[in-house]
Amino acid sequence: MTNLNEILGQKIARLREESTLRTLKDTERLKKGHIARAGESLLSFSCNDYLDLARDKRVIKAANAAATKYGAGSGASRLITGNHPLYTELETNLARALGAEASAVYGSGYLANIGVITALVGSGDLILADKLSHSCIIDGSQLSNAEFRRFEHNDLAKLDAMLERHRRNYRNCLVITEAVFSMDGDVPEMEKLYEICRKHNAWLLTDHAHDIQHFSNSTPQRDNHIVMGTFSKAFGSYGGYVAGSQELVDYLKTASRSLMFTTGLPPAVVAASIKSLELAQAEPERAQKALTHAEFFRKALKNNLKSADMCNSSTQIVPLIIGRAAQATEISAHLAQDGFLVHAIRPPTVPANTSRLRFSFSAAHDKTKVDELAKLIIRYFNED
Ligand SMILES: *Cc1c(COP(=O)(O)O)cnc(C)c1O
């Protein structure tokens, strides 16, 4: 007899020993970048609401109005009766913002990646993805039945060599990377990447989940380039998307299983995304503020710590590599005592021995707090 609870109990005990056990903590998001947890208020550097739009009055008002008018839920799949006209407005506005012909909105970014990858490639095709790709890119790739290989993080020469060697053995080839890497905060050389893909007759899928600028300074999208992103982070709302050619979007709407076999988003969520997109475009200073905070923070650490591995971060996401999971967790707890929420990111989210503190800067932060946080980190390491 194999007892389920006994087996799970052993697995949980092992994770606890390795300091990689996860538990959910009740958290309420308050004003000005704060969160409430266990009766305490902390200034959060762990939210992805980079543009501080989740609590924006105008976004909330748009969501409230749609909920009042159209109800709480959408009632069915988009293909049946769940395709509220607000979807058309959002998809049209988004395509225009991204310089694309069309776009398709999914229930979440996770569903978008699963849905676009499995719709475009299958058995007999090849996927080459950056080694640090998000879990949903890996899940979608494995689900697709295509041959799945990974190239060293941001190593375009390796990618080129792999394409040179393997491309000819497959029918279609999809290269996947992130425009801003979620745990490292660095970026690939997009122009070079696109050229390599073109040279080898491969399609390119770029995941913009953490990209806080592409919708404000986009160049027209090019052939064989598929853009994916989410409304759940910078836009402070919920839902994922894919943008590109009209043919791509028409096909996804008739063949992408994670768009077809799931209920449409609540109208209030779609209305919130419409408003957020409008505000993100109209107020580019929001993104600029987050980026400026990150730049200031990186400089402070670089100038005051003997060594600070921040993984080539050049965006609003700044990692500080600690190494051992237990130490990363300990520093995170220490910062919480001083009123700062900075999550420790541990395996399997990141590779073994690269446990880190991940700081995400947002338009909700002010400079004095960023300065205070940098000083705390510097003091922690210099006292050690
Ligand atoms: C968060 C994330 C996703 C998933 O987006 P959700 O809308 O949260 O489901 C996809 N890709 C990357 C790189 C992400 O960080």
Plain-language structure description:
The protein has 384 residues and is of the alpha/beta class. Helices cover 43% and strands 17% of the residues. It contains 13 helices and 14 strands. Helix 3 runs parallel beside helix 10 and helix 11 runs parallel beside helix 13. The model has no long low-confidence stretch (mean pLDDT 96). The site of pyridoxal-5'-phosphate has 14 residues, from helix 4.
How do the strands and helices of this protein lay out in sequence?
Blueprint: H1 4-17, E1 28-29, E2 34-37, E3 40-44, H2 57-70, H3 85-98, E4 102-106, H4 109-120, E5 126-130, H5 135-144, E6 147-151, H6 156-166, E7 173-178, H7 190-199, E8 203-207, E9 225-230, E10 240-244, H8 246-255, H9 257-260, H10 267-282, H11 285-304, E11 317-323, H12 325-337, E12 340-341, E13 344-345, E14 355-360, H13 367-383
Parallel strand pairs: 3-12, 5-6, 5-7, 7-8, 8-9
Antiparallel strand pairs: 1-2, 2-3, 4-10, 9-10, 11-14, 13-14
The structure holds pyridoxal-5'-phosphate.
